[in-house]
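Lab notebook, bench 4. We co-purified these components, and the gel suggests they stay together. Before we commit to crystallization screens, I want a quick structural picture of the whole thing.
Request: model the full complex, all chains together.
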Amino acid sequence: MNIILLGPPGAGKGTQARKLVDERGMIQLSTGDMLREARTSGTEMGKRVAAIMDAGELVTDEIVIGLIEEKIQGDNGGGFIFDGFPRTLGQADALGDLLAKYKQHLDHVIEMRVDDTALVNRIVGRFTCGNCGEVYHKDTKPTKKDGVCDVCGSEDLKHRADDNEESLRTRLMEYYKKTSPLIGYYYANGKLSSVNGLAEIDKVASSIAAILD
Ligand code: AMP
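Here is the predicted assembly.
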């Protein structure tokens, strides 16, 4: 089963994707994570995208479509979770073409609905483990032991460079201008379901499970 998690930055797409990986053996394909990896590897592409990401703008469709094509050619295990992709209508069309090319099918698009005012708090308090990728929040999901990841024990806890109010405003603007039309796009092709992304993490997970099952 292949699904898309759709929603603005801070909606909880990454958190829910990680639960689906743990519980169902699905494969998370986060273009944001792939781009962050590319920028730390110091490649030409990494250098080009770093400034764009820090400003909160979208990188070109060509780059992210290329990253996704590399990943979806192999075995899809328990299915792919597209997290943060597609983000434009061009990317959505390209994903449809790629899935057809590799004989895959899109089963569900899950829109995570959240209220904009909640996003600022969610984003500004967020930090992640540099080793295993677990996502935390200073108020709602702190680590059990200060400065140590609950999952893998790493002390490499990081705050993302683009998780600040100024960059978030640009990211939200990009979302409303370029990504939110995808809600209509996937509604029209009969794939869209919505969940309340403001509910507790486990409640959101149950709503998603109800759609998938
Ligand atoms: P995310 O981790 O999904 O919030 O993505 C972080 C940043 O990576 C975004 O603000 C964009 O600059 C870039 N990015 C991630 N996914 C995409 C995408 N599908 N299209 C364009 N830019 C992307």
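The two ends are 10 Å apart (CA to CA). Worth comparing against the SEC data before the next meeting. The mean pLDDT is 93.
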